[in-house]
Design goal:
Elements: H1 3-19, H2 24-40, H3 43-57, H4 65-78, H5 81-93, H6 99-115, H7 118-128, H8 130-135, H9 140-151, H10 161-170, H11 174-202, H12 204-207, H13 222-245, H14 250-267, H15 273-307, H16 309-319, H17 324-339, H18 344-359, H19 366-378, H20 388-397, H21 404-427, H22 430-433
Helix pairs in contact: 1-2, 2-3, 2-15, 3-15, 4-14, 4-15, 5-6, 5-13, 6-7, 6-9, 6-11, 6-13, 7-9, 7-20, 9-21, 10-11, 10-18, 10-19, 11-19, 11-21, 13-14, 15-18, 16-18, 17-19, 18-19, 19-21, 20-21
Length: 437
């Protein structure tokens, strides 16, 4: 077998191992090591590749963004800011059919801007939003579907862990990826709200619910509205404003956001010594797992380069005379297929090193390609059998009235909206690069 054929088989082997439950970085590193050994017939070469990768991959200054933004997200979640944002959004949309669903989308979008985690969003709003929608007789599938659909905003709106992972794999700026994610994230949130309003008119039974007038004494006063929104606005201004204006690097923005989040949690008396220690431990666990992922992905990328698989893929596509349209169709179909089998991080780590040498010579922006990749992979969070957000919602809800099937069926329309937004982003790349100009 030729090195290219062995490399292609290694990619298949990695996908199969991950689907069978092997830890992602272990699958990437072990298969890459064996492939290098087989192709070179020199185990010392594979050992040297691994040693060099470990020495080079996680020593960059930008990697500090991972623990800083992770800690900030955990602190913000413990401070209860998700519930505050939901209360404000619920008061804004309460008189509209499907208004609580719209409020959930809006709150998720804002919450995502300071957490960057779809799993955290799914967990928080399952507890806050779903019980309220069920109380007001909303369709149970819509109630869980809107939480699942809007939770993916956490992986698109910065600071997103997936954008950080992509930036290191593709060797592009973390700050530019964050800025590029703002407009697509807002577009997706607005698309969800419009879709809910449209469904409320043409298929009201699919949404259900009733509008309940809130007594005046339950309405938030102006001072309460300011008190609930000010902390989140301050954090967004510090993090995204600092990066966009150039006053702060992504690492500095993460540090400033973490400090501000910690101060807010202390002022709100939501942070004890025990919860602070828990946040530190969880930050360490998450950071270690992500850095292990990136190290294994770097080793995998070097293996692909050694067997010349990306160049052979580019040559194959060139020989087929495929236009940009058909290349993107093939890429999106591949992403959707892998999304039913693998999680978002796995897809990014496996697919991007293969296709990046195809996209870059075409003169296309790697920043735009990153948003296309993340959005395409995120659709998999809503589709069986590996819809992680759907499993988190079911586990968090712990309600026998709602099955896992209900969660997946409720999320399906939102996956369709994501696909439409993905097509728009592909058709109009300027939506991802406009703020960078």
């Amino acid at each position: 077998m030729s090195p290219v054929e062995i490399g292609a088989l290694s990619v298949v082997a990695i996908v199969v191992l991950i689907y069978l439950g092997v830890y992602i970085p272990v699958a990437l590193a072990s298969v890459s090591f064996v492939t290098l050994w087989i192709v070179s017939e020199k185990p010392i070469l594979a050992i040297n590749f691994l040693r060099q990768t470990i020495g080079d991959s996680v020593t960059e200054y930008e990697f500090a963004t991972i623990p800083l933004f992770t800690f900030m997200g955990l602190v913000v979640a413990k401070a209860g800011l998700g519930k505050d944002v939901y209360d404000v959004m619920n008061q804004v949309f309460r008189r509209i059919r499907g208004g609580i669903g719209m409020a959930t989308v809006g709150a998720n979008a804002v919450f995502a801007a300071v957490t960057g985690s779809s799993i955290a969003s799914a967990s928080v709003f399952t507890k806050v939003s779903v019980p309220e929608m069920l109380r007001l007789d909303y369709n149970k599938r819509f109630a869980v579907g809107v939480v699942a659909g809007s939770s993916v905003l956490g992986m698109i709106i910065p600071p997103s862990a997936m954008l950080i992972i992509y930036s290191f794999v593709a060797e592009v700026s973390v700050g530019e990826m964050f800025i590029a994610g703002i407009i697509p994230g807002i577009i997706l949130a607005l698309a969800y709200i419009v879709a809910i309003a449209f469904a409320g008119r043409i298929a009201p039974k699919a949404i259900g619910g009733r509008i309940e007038e809130m007594p005046d004494e339950e309405l938030l006063s102006w001072s309460e509205l300011v008190g609930k929104t000010a902390p989140i606005v301050i954090l967004i201004t510090i993090v995204l404003g600092g990066i966009y204006t150039g006053w702060l690097t992504p690492v500095e923005a993460g540090a400033a956001g973490s400090l501000a989040g910690l101060v807010i949690a202390l002022l709100r008396r939501r942070m004890t010594a025990g919860s602070f220690w828990e946040a530190l431990l969880e930050t360490g666990h998450i950071t270690a797992s992500i850095l292990f992922l990136i190290t294994a992905a770097s080793f995998y990328s070097r293996m692909l380069g050694f067997v010349d698989l990306p160049n052979q893929l580019q040559a194959f596509l060139d020989s087929q005379n495929l236009s940009f349209f058909w290349i993107m169709v093939a890429y999106v179909v591949l992403m959707l297929f892998l999304g039913t089998l693998l999680d978002t991080a796995s897809i990014i780590l496996i697919v991007v090193p293969l296709f990046i040498d195809v996209i870059e010579p075409m003169g296309l922006s790697l920043i735009w390609f990153g948003l296309v990749t993340v959005i395409g992979a995120e659709i998999g969070l809503l589709t069986p059998p590996l819809g992680i957000s759907c499993f988190v919602i079911k586990a968090t809800l712990n309600d026998d009235r709602i099955s896992l099937k209900d969660v997946f069926l409720g999320a399906l329309p939102f996956a369709a909206v994501m696909l439409v937004v993905l097509i728009v982003i592909i058709r109009f790349p300027v939506l991802t690069t406009y703020l960078l100009n």
